[in-house]
Recover the amino acids of this structure.
């Protein structure tokens, strides 16, 4: 780590320091747990630019154009966009409202079984940036690329975790009207090395090599199942529940040290112009949506820039306005830490001792998701029938 960083819990791996080093003496290196940290070589000229842009050392706060926050429950009207999205398609619809076919959009994309922030050109080319990816992403090169594009007066959209957005803001020397920042309500980011170990465990279970993995896959264009989808080398695939990585991730055992109780960004003062997430508590807040066949997104407006973008977006989506308190009640990671893992250090101690044995010790085998005939009928039933089913005692399993 760099000289001013006191502990690993004080470094988010955002890469702001890497992007501003004038002599390129900083390198992002993986530690034994699989997380990236900056290290400097003897070529360092002690200019301290890295320290000045570090969002932990120098919290940059928020934009000057903060307004009272507004929140919406949003669903795209485009079935293809919904299918390729983790929730209601908010990210895609925001990109369409702000950008065009020349806009630079930066987000997390798969690179094998690792995740990297990458830039694409045009709102029609963002498919690889959609969907949740609960693995820590690297962003070494994109901050400089984004700054260059902004200075060329290109529109740019950046989407990432709040700490990544803070890192990008730190690496820029001013605010840009042509930059839209989108942050996420974040559970944390997990180790890429642990993820790959879990992939190996699934391969052993099914005795087939895996070539692709998808978090929260949707099996159809009308129902969200929240399954993991693995694609094997032979072209076959399986939808699985409770896979090994998800078990560790939800228990916070494989998260970066700066996540969890050490996170500095779980508060209402958001880093992005817009905050997006799953919309939780849907039918409690909007009872008329009970039996809905699709999941929705939360969209929270934090700045005047976001207000104008979201107003344009709302003309093309199904939406309901809600209160910020609704978001806080049903998705408390929006503004606070909910709990901390007591087992993280013990897990990584076992992992560093024997990776394969550790995954077997700390997780159970993945379960293949099979759809019952009753569930198939429920999935295709009209909404009014689904509502009746949900009211009947003993049919709660249909909500799973």
């Amino acid at each position: 780590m760099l000289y001013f960083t006191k502990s690993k819990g004080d470094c988010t791996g955002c890469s702001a320091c890497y992007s501003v080093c004038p002599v390129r003496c900083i390198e992002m290196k993986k530690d034994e747990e699989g997380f990236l940290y900056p290290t400097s070589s003897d070529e360092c000229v002690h200019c301290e630019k890295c320290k000045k842009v570090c969002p932990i050392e120098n919290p940059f706060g928020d934009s000057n154009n903060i307004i009272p926050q507004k929140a919406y429950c949003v669903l795209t009207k485009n079935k293809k966009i919904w299918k390729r999205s983790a929730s209601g398609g908010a990210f895609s619809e925001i990109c369409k409202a702000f950008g065009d076919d020349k806009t630079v959009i930066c987000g997390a994309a798969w690179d094998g079984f690792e995740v990297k922030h990458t830039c694409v050109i045009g709102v029609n080319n963002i498919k690889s940036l959609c969907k949740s990816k609960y693995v820590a992403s690297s962003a070494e090169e994109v901050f400089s690329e984004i700054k260059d594009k902004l200075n060329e007066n290109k529109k740019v959209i950046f989407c990432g975790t709040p700490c990544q957005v803070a890192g990008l803001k730190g690496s820029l020397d001013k605010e840009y009207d042509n930059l839209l920042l989108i942050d996420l309500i974040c559970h944390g980011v997990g180790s890429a090395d642990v993820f790959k170990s879990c992939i190996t465990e699934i391969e052993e279970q099914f005795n087939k090599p895996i070539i692709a993995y998808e978090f929260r896959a949707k099996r159809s264009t009308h129902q969200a199942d929240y399954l993991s989808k693995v694609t094997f080398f032979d072209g076959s695939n399986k939808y699985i529940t409770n896979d090994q990585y998800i078990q560790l991730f939800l228990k916070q055992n494989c998260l970066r040290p700066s996540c969890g109780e050490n996170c500095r960004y779980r508060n209402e003062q958001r880093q992005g112009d817009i905050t997006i997430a799953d919309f939780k508590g849907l039918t409690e807040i909007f009872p008329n949506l009970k039996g809905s066949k699709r999941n929705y997104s939360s969209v929270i407006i934090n700045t005047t820039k976001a207000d104008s973008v979201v107003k344009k977006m709302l003309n093309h989506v199904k939406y309901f306005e809600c209160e910020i308190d609704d978001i806080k009640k049903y998705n408390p990671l929006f503004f606070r830490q909910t709990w901390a893992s007591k087992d993280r250090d013990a897990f990584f101690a076992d992992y560093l001792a024997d990776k394969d044995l550790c995954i077997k010790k700390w997780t159970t085998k993945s379960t293949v998701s099979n759809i019952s005939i009753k569930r198939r009928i429920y999935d295709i039933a009209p909404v009014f029938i689904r509502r009746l089913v949900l009211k009947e005692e003993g049919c709660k399993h249909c909500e799973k």
The chain has three domains: 8-53, 66-189+255-334, 192-254+339-369. The two ends are 44 Å apart (CA to CA).
